[in-house]
Amino acid sequence: MKFFVVVFLSLFPLWAQAVEVGEQVAPWTLLDQFDVAYTLDNQAKILLVARSMDAAKRVDTALQGRPQGYLEARHVVFVADIQRMPRLVAKLFAVPAMQAYNYRVMLDRDARIVPRYPAPVDKVLWLQLDNGKLVARHEYSSACELRQALEQVKP
């Protein structure tokens, strides 16, 4: 019984800070795969959130063949949750592999940001922003659907 109380109390702050449609998204700062800081601001129109490696692979597949700067031109920010990945694996293999991508990946190494945006682990979460306010949210389970949605966004 104590275990369930502890789990509930430890997860309660995550539920309390989950952003809902119509609310302002709190700014945050994360490092990308090159250890360059990025701060979410009102210029961002779309926030893509991958909570798992499978979801991140869907984003990568959707972006195959797209030119460098494709996401930036559309004011899209991509955040990947890598907190479950062992630090040594991330440092030696995963992050260096991400440096070959032609787009930026904001890395949530300590699960400080991604828990604010609850969604199924296996889907890519799309948060539509307007001047920092969450106006819509979608979930994509296929790279094809995500690619089609990204193509609808005007640069």
Write a compact overview of the structure shown.
This protein has a single domain (2-151), classed as Glutaredoxin (3-Layer(aba) Sandwich), CATH 3.40.30. 33% of the residues lie in helices and 23% in strands.
Task: Describe the protein in words.
This protein is α/β, with parallel strands linked by helices. The chain has a single domain, classed as Glutaredoxin (3-Layer(aba) Sandwich), CATH 3.40.30.10. Helices cover 33% and strands 23% of the residues. The protein has a seven-stranded mixed β-sheet. The termini are far apart. The relative contact order is 0.23. The N terminus is likely disordered.
Topology:
Blueprint (H helix, E strand, L loop, with lengths): L1 H15 L12 E4 L4 E3 L6 E5 L2 H11 L6 H4 L2 E6 L5 H12 L7 E3 L15 E7 L2 E8 L2 H9 L4
Parallel strand pairs: 3-4, 4-5
Antiparallel strand pairs: 1-2, 1-5, 3-6, 6-7
Helix pairs in contact: 2-5
Highlighted features:
Glutaredoxin; 7-stranded mixed β-sheet; 155 residues; alpha/beta
N-to-C series of helices and strands: HEEEHHEHEEEH
Write out the strand line-up for the largest beta sheet, numbering strands in chain order. 2-1-5-4-3-6-7
* Largest sheet data: 7 strands, mixed
CATH class: Alpha Beta
How much is the radius of gyration in Å?
16 Å
Shape: globular
Give the overall pLDDT as a whole number. 90
β-strand number: 7
Quickly give the structural class.
Answer: alpha/beta
Question: What's the name of the CATH homologous superfamily?
Answer: Glutaredoxin
The level of helicity is 25-40%
Low-confidence stretches: 3-16
Separation of the first and last Cα atoms = 53 Å
CATH topology: Glutaredoxin
Secondary-structure arrangement, i.e. CATH architecture:
3-Layer(aba) Sandwich
SS strand fraction: 15-25%
Number of discrete domains: 1
